[in-house]
Specification:
The protein is built from nine helices and six strands, in the order αααββαβαβαβαβαα. The chain is α/β, with parallel strands linked by helices and 220 residues long. Strand 3, helix 5 and strand 4 form a beta-alpha-beta unit. The N and C termini lie far apart (96 Å).
């Protein structure tokens, strides 16, 4: 086997390289002609490879399935009142502070659909600014928004049966909450106002709601 340049035609060690003659060029053009001008536009242009430079989004549903919670950690207590306050961190700061303090006082749970700006760091930073020294329970639970038909924030949802209180804490597919098993109020109002409104629409819940309102309106 020959591995040197001398083995190539016209490339002997003592000879100069043989340049193509005009006859060689004419023969090459006949064998491999250039495409006609009319065919240039018909040839498909190669496309550059696609590169998705966007940052990867966080799978909120996966976080919820794994029990993602914001500080303080821990699930709702065994004495869960069944009250959920569905919020977004884009709400006015004064409203979030008011709801956070009231939720702490009566054991309500604040529910987020997802992360602020798709960032766990930004979400935690905002939450830490709001909870202060009286932290309520915060959870990320996008399924609850579907489960209770929540389309705006804030929305106050009170589960009216023990089963619905358990479902409100997770572990239920969408559509499991029936209209008779919970009551909801939407609007930028205080929690005690929302509870009083629920009592007016559902008088049978007065005994369940009265202690919560009294606790909110008692001296801290």
């Amino acid at each position: 086997m020959c591995l040197s340049l001398a083995c190539l035609p016209g490339m002997g060690s003592a000879q100069a390289p043989a340049w193509p003659t005009p006859r060689d060029i004419d023969r090459a053009l006949r064998e491999r002609p250039f495409p006609a001008a009319g065919r240039l536009d018909a040839q498909p242009l190669p496309r550059p490879p696609f590169i998705d430079a966007r940052p990867a989004e966080i799978d909120i549903a996966a976080l919820a399935r794994e029990g993602a919670k914001l500080p303080p950690s821990g699930a709702p207590s065994a004495h869960d009142t069944g009250l959920r306050v569905f919020i977004t961190l884009d709400m006015p700061r004064a409203s979030l502070l008011r709801l956070s303090e009231a939720a702490h006082r009566i054991g309500a749970v604040l529910v987020l659909r997802g992360l602020k700006a798709h960032s766990m760091r930004e979400t935690l930073g905002t939450v830490r600014e709001l909870i202060g020294r009286k932290p309520p329970t915060w959870i990320i639970d996008p399924q609850s928004f579907v489960r209770f038909g929540v389309t705006s924030a804030p929305t106050f949802v009170l589960a009216t049966t023990e089963r619905q209180v358990a479902l409100a804490s997770g572990g239920c597919a969408s559509g499991c909450a029936t209209a008779s098993a919970f009551v909801s109020i939407s609007g930028d109002v205080t929690i005690d106002y929302a509870l009083e409104t629920m009592a007016r629409y559902r008088p049978e819940l007065t005994n369940q709601l009265r202690p919560l309102v009294a606790k909110l309106r008692s001296a801290p």
